Amino acid sequence: MEKMSRVTTALSSNTISGRTMFCHLDAPANAISVCRDATQVVVAGRNIFKIYSLEEEQFVEKLNLRVGRKPSLNFSCADVMWHQMEENLLATAATNGAVVTWNLGKPSRNKQDQLFTEHKRTVNKVCFHPTEVYMLLSGSQDGFMKCFDLRKKESVSTFSGQSESVRDVQFSMKDYFTFAASFENGNVQLWDIRRPDRYERMFTAHTGPVFCCDWHPDDRGWLATGGRDKMVKVWDMTTNRAKEIYCVQTIASVARVKWRPERKFHLATCSMMVDHNIYVWDIRRPFIPFATFEEHKDVTTGIVWRHQHDPDFLLSGSKDSTLYQHMFKDATRPVDKANPEGLCFGLLGDLAFAAKESLISSDANRKPYPGGDRRYPIFFFKKPDQTEQFAHVSSALSVFETDLDSNRMDWFVKTAQLYLLSGKPFAELCDHNAKVAQELKRPQVSTTWTMLRIMFSDPANLPAPGLNHNLIKPGTLPLMSSFSMKEMGSGIGTESRLERSKGDSRQDNSHLEPGNSHISNNNEENEETEGSEGQAEYMFGDAELDDDDLYSMEHDNQTEEPEYTLPQEAFQLRHEIMDNPSAPEHLQQDKADSPHVSGNEAEVTCLTPIESFSLISISQPLFSPHLPASFFCPIVREMLSYYAEQGDVQMAVSVLIVLGDRIRKAIDDLTQEHWYMSYIDLLQRFELWNVSNEVIKLSTCSAITCLNQTSTTLHINCSNCKRPMSNKGWICDRCHQCASVCAVCHHVVKGLFVWCQGCSHGGHLEHMMNWLKSSAHCPAGCGHLCEYT
């Protein structure tokens, strides 16, 4: 290797100074790295590879390493690292699988020094040893890690992680021979560079790919990891088993994690999608960032602290083609804008309220505690001072419990389980749901379902009132087809009233003969049973019907009307009564005789010992009784909004699904999506998974139907050869062994199969549960410490 020399001179002062500044890059950056004395930064990407000098007021471009008329893929960088011991040595990970080293001391324009092409796929990470000048480690998408001695032309060691992809590799800062590697399958492995045949330790760190890891610069045993599960975890590696000691929940997948210098509990993170900000967390308070940098307009791809002993300057590169230097004193402090009060409802209606004690009026009956109220300690940040230390501030938590009997949610669970939303005709769905609501003592909801059936059903398809009640019942004439007129005086012209019966329906003995029908009433009034499947019946007095009513009638008491006889099948043409084109011109009523009812060649005779009835037939209606569905849409929309505002989003969503296209276009998509999300959230909180999935399937909102289509792919490895399984079956293509063999009983698993994500061994659910109750080691004998959660 040629003798290396510096490109630029060091700063005249040992104190790092500067301000928040940025510069525009020629292309998006994939990674950045800073030199040892914090005066220069290298930016690498697919189409950029430059070195910038960090001046007092700006970035100054010093060197462009992409030379040649047509740069090769070796210049397309996925990662870059500047050696912290040798100031002119750089290493890059190329997207074509090459590992390239660069000597900035070369006199020629092309600074490329060595080229290693042993990896078969993209190299994701390169890492120099912190104290060894010539030791370089790489991790690739092919699942292998390679250790290079820069004095040789090829790698000296190859480490197989037995996984599909290595996402990050990091040498330990305190342990000379140890490095950590993170993998696509959620595992983290610790290796000794002297023993490339087997890892020293492996544990499952995340429920998904682990994108990054970083050793603590001061504490020897702390390792921070970040993954797709949106979590940053800190592990204590000094114990026999890796122990999770801190966990930070972020809002997006974690792409980079870097410990903050001189601050034991601070680390910086950035996301690989969705979130563009850089967060600095205090791991002791994981629910709100300690500081936030919000300058980037696209995903941040690389972060690095400017100097290993300076906590005040952070450098970052982004896909928005900018390079930033952030001053920590200019960072946004989210805790300053955080609401000091908290309010939350419990599943059963309990209310919890937390606030600083200074905001809550003191209770005279409560004795103050010398150290503050410690019954429910909740800690808040004070405004950060110069020492960046936060004080513990106690808060009071008040819990207001509701009466269980008055606020039980059993009706919600039973309704969700019993409602029918599809699979039957519309009228049957409405009737069934109305019956369910009636049984749960929710009469308003039951009535709503009944009204929806009446509004949107085809009148020809409505069930006849008496068909479900043995078909012979007093007063079972079709609704809006016949009216029974009850005399209140000596003549038809006397004033009558509208009556509704108040008892249960009672069927009297009846006798039916061909051509005649005799029904005894025993002076019982016509009855309507609320919630029944039949239609309601009403009695209208003659004073309420005139020429301005819905139907025109002709009646003449002077001429006797000929009698009509019943056909052989009394109910064959029951639904055609309203379609009768003509009605008898005369109807005569005689108190001594039974009344005669004309209509579609049918006669109903009612024997009334005390009072007589005048049954008047109707002629052609003045307008069509069937209204289009759009006529009722406005009032139904208001009804759904009412239920949603009252908190009964279950009713709003259920009606929305049952009505379907009849009402869907009348409600905007955002409102529908909000109702669906609220109802699905409630169902999942009550663990009604099947009902929740049915609602998702029946939804027509694209944002809802995709909820059960995510995270459905399962990648598995063969438990024998550790290679990824194909999608063709359970037989491994390489070793021709069945992957679903129980490690305890050694039989093929044909039911529920559970396996360890660390070693890929598994078996019957009950067998594995019983085994892990008494032993922590894998039953297959591989030595892995399995854990059942």
TrEMBL record:
Q: Does the keyword NADP apply?
A: no
What is this enzyme's EC?
2.3.2.27
Lipid biosynthesis: is it a keyword of this entry? no
> Which SUPFAM superfamilies does the entry mention?
WD40 repeat-like
Location in or out of the cell: Lysosome membrane
Any one cellular component term from GO for this entry? GATOR2 complex
PANTHER family (alphabetical): GATOR COMPLEX PROTEIN WDR24
The family note in this entry says: Belongs to the WD repeat WDR24 family.
In Swiss-Prot or TrEMBL terms, this protein is called GATOR2 complex protein WDR24
> Where does this protein come from, organism-wise?
Parambassis ranga (Indian glassy fish)
The record lists the lineage as:
Eukaryota, Metazoa, Chordata, Craniata, Vertebrata
**Gene name for this UniProt entry:** wdr24
